[in-house]
Amino acid sequence: MNIKRLSALSVLMTATVAFAADQPIIGLITKTETNPFFVKMKEGAQKAATAKGAKLLTGAGKADGDNAGQVTALENMVAAGAKAILITPNNAQAIIPAIEKARKQGVMVIALDSPTDPQSAVDALFATNNYKAGQLIGKYAKAAFGKKPVKIATLDLFPGHPVGIDRHNGFLNGFGISSDKDARVVCMQDSYGDQAKGQTAMENCLQKDPEINLVYTINEPAAAGAYQALKAIGREKDVMIVSVDGGCTGVKNVAAGMIAATSQQYPLKMASLGVEAGVKYIKTGKKVSGYTDTGVTLITDKKMKGVTSKDTKFGLDNCWGVK
Amino acid sequence: MTVQNPANARTREANSLLKRLNSTNLLGPIIALILASAFFATQSERFLTGQNFSLILQQVMVVGVMAIGQTLIILTAGIDLSCGMVMVLGTMVMTKLAVESGMNPFVAILAGTLVSTAVGFLNGLLVTKIKLPPFIVTLGTYNIAFAITQIYSNAQTQTGLPEALTFFGNTFHIGNTAITYGTVLMLLMYVLIWVFLTRTAPGRHIYAVGNNPEAARLTGIPTNKVLLFVYTFAGFIYSIAGLLLVARTGVGDPNAGATDNLDTITAVVLGGTSLFGGRGLIYGTLLGALIVGVFRNGLTLTGVPSVYQILITGILVILAVAADQLTRKKA
């Protein structure tokens, strides 16, 4: 009896969905509900959806790395009649079976911000080129240091994360270093992109080698932690910190001189491009494919010769979050 | 008339200390700490310095203070999964009121303290009045505190804090070593709680309630009042930890503290306090927090990737609980 009732209910629900189907439905699944980067991405998607007359469904994992939560959201969105789904995968591989199932039902799936593994598991990828983001700050630091002796600390993300690895390797490449084994890299620690953990990591690195004079950080919270650690020993003026992200707080820290330069990325653009592509697919049946670089800009107030950059005014105008 | 042989008395004293340490499972953690320190000292000449030790204390300060509340609760055979979130909720109230509303910073701190204490009180009410298991109660309030923090802060970090909120991050010098006021506060809190637990009747009641609540009740101890007090007081302690967190990082970060509940439990367990209640020493918890800090610091100094710290902590936690089980069976 219960089953009967349930099936009647689901028929009813499907029917309602079918009735509303003339309005394009697009889903957006972020890594978490709470990271301001994704909060902003959602805002961008909502804006684009409203402008295009589409209905936006949103969902997220419970925490960074929560794959099951994203799978549930994805299944629910397909059930709700979404024909295009944008997702920032928490787990590049574990999400793939759910994506395949959705695509088999005619749903176009676009990965935002982070790729799936393999990248071809989705129709398209709209994301920052993280290697290039790292490279830009590496080149900037190289231009600033020139032939001066350098001792580098890297405050990375966490083991094995592709975004962390790309930025780290990009930075080293930009600086002209080919491997982690290089003697100029004196300390590598995971910061989990967290200010308090970044601070602890930097303090310990400075204990290991007090002469560190260049710090690469995975993101701006980690950079703020590094700055806090340097300030505690009075070295905040003579150590250069470079970072990636371009959030409003981060850009403000660049303007305040805490961070020398940061590579800014554009979550709003990823979201609005994704929504536009989704609406186009639903209306015309034309899919997007391949990788779209949503761009990265070096933000600094101390320009270096031979390195293209914009100032913090531009950075603040284009940052995400509350200015 | 018997004349005490001072040497004998000393060995007896030492023996009884050893016994006491052994009965609370502190011997293992102390040996682990000494061995690890000795190893790190041979690997890096920077390890055994006052400055480095001060640094480790600063790094364990927030979890160390929170773990005081966790210890009190675990002594009553309870557990608190909500502590990190209760702390962060308090910090967001403090920082947002002080920065965005321009409130007098001391009033803002008081408001944050009240909010955290209130959540602790709520935990206590649910445990004592509705008799829900602490695990479930605090799992619920973990989520509630997290959600309210996110809604209240709109996931935005508060910066530009007034000096009063970051006071405990300031330092004074002993010789070349810079020591933060927050570290001193943490150590002071441990001393006070130690006196409270071992020298006062309410303190002993906490042990009694954890050991055997029914027996405690029959001897006239107001079991429910003790529990309600412990959970509320723990909430208050978390707000102090929050003040230290704000002082250390210089910001109000709504995404901090997510795994601090596990870190405090780790410290308590490594410090030899029994998860089954009634047995443990408050300074053991400080020791437990220090072990984690020493490994993280020492492994960085010797150039080992930070995942190994997590690996070693995991092994130590299992060893500590196993030791507790084994001595319990013997007893």
TrEMBL record, chain A:
One Pfam family in the UniProt entry: Peripla_BP_4
InterPro entries per the UniProt record, alphabetical: Peripla_BP_I, SBP_2_dom
GO cellular component: cell envelope
Localization (cell): Cell envelope
Domain of life assignment: Bacteria
Primary location group: other
Domain Periplasmic binding protein: 26-287
GO MF: carbohydrate binding
Keyword hit for Signal: yes
Alphabetical UniProt keywords: Signal
Signal peptide as annotated in the record: 1-20
Family: Belongs to the bacterial solute-binding protein 2 family.
Designated name of the protein: Sugar ABC transporter substrate-binding protein
Organism this protein belongs to: Deinococcus cellulosilyticus (strain DSM 18568 / NBRC 106333 / KACC 11606 / 5516J-15)
From TrEMBL, chain B:
Keyword Chaperone tagged: no
Subcellular location: Cell membrane
CDD domains hit by this protein: TM_PBP1_transp_AraH_like
Entry's Gene Ontology molecular function annotations: transmembrane transporter activity
Assigned GO CC terms: plasma membrane
Membrane topology classification: Multi-pass membrane protein
Parts of the chain that traverse the membrane: 21-41, 53-74, 81-99, 105-127, 134-152, 172-197, 226-247, 267-295, 307-326
Keywords, in A-Z order: Cell membrane, Membrane, Transmembrane, Transmembrane helix
Protein name: ABC transporter permease
Organism name: Deinococcus cellulosilyticus (strain DSM 18568 / NBRC 106333 / KACC 11606 / 5516J-15)
Origin organism lineage: Bacteria, Thermotogati, Deinococcota, Deinococci, Deinococcales
